Amino acid sequence: MYLGVRVDSSAVVPAVLDNGASVSGVSETLADRLTLGRGARAPLVGNGAERLTIALARNVIFHVGGASLTEPAAAIVPMRPFVALEGRAVDAIVGKDLFARFVVDVDYDAGRLTLRNPRSFDYRGRGEIVPLHLSRDRSRAWMSGTVTAAGGGTIPVRLGLDIGTYSAVRLYAPFVREHALATTSGTTIESYGFGLGGEFPVALARLAAASIGAVTLERPVAELSKATGGATAGTDVDGTIGGAALRHFHVIIDFARSRMILEPGREIAAPFAADMSGLLLSARGEALDTIFVRHIASGSPAEAAGLRVGDTILSVDGEPAARLGLDGLRTSFMRSGRYELGIERAGATIKLILATRLLI
User: Alpha carbon of 317 to those of 301, 313, 314, 354: distances in Å?
Assistant: First the structure.
């Protein structure tokens, strides 16, 4: 979920809302514009496999709507590798302190974030209440649940709440190995997840079901991490529930009462979509409007079409790729169809036909 925030005296800048971020932070570019002093350095473990060391800035104020948060030690993050995979500018991350201070009401259907005072908040709706377990510093929130693999039994699982990820369900590498999920999850396709710290290898699979509390998600797409570093190689939790699952609901996160409330949204019955191309794309250039092929899954429609790593996608069915953007291309390739691609390769322009199909 993206939102506009002001940092100290800045104009409104694009930010990501991420309860999984233990501190709020800013990009190095924004820190330079605001002449934020670099203080102590600290390690940063993101979802990506690369371990980062970042600088901290003291007492940075984040203005979110009418609310203000002072971060005693805000992270100054090298954001450029992340935005290349994100495909859009991101200058700030609003982290766990927002969730610790407010009841955070996320209406995906309306595209609206509402912050409520936990002292006066009195929920009287009929949504499902999912108990949350919180770490002492409230930097992590997780839920007890189950996952059911396509070819296996039902397994108890601790799923972290991670509103800052694209995935529906992400299962961490130690849990995947312990329960042999790579071999019991039916058809899988090799791919990559990404976050701060870059990318990490995953196998995409479709679970039979995943549940948190009394809420069951039918046939969600899961990322089965194969990472050897970064958060998804850890054991703090067994995995996460992310944005692709939460967007099916109106979500109210109430840390003060250790609960999350899920009300059915417009897309409650919509099936979980997955990539049908076998492409992992990335963006470059100042405007992030040059889209190129970063990875191709073996045996995928992209490989069959003759696409190669490093190809630049110029157009899709005559529409400039720069106008569609990285997010638009990813969305298009989650639908079955036949696409004519304009490709630049080694200085030459060629046409290829990509016939997408259901992969998992």
Answer: 17, 11, 10, 10
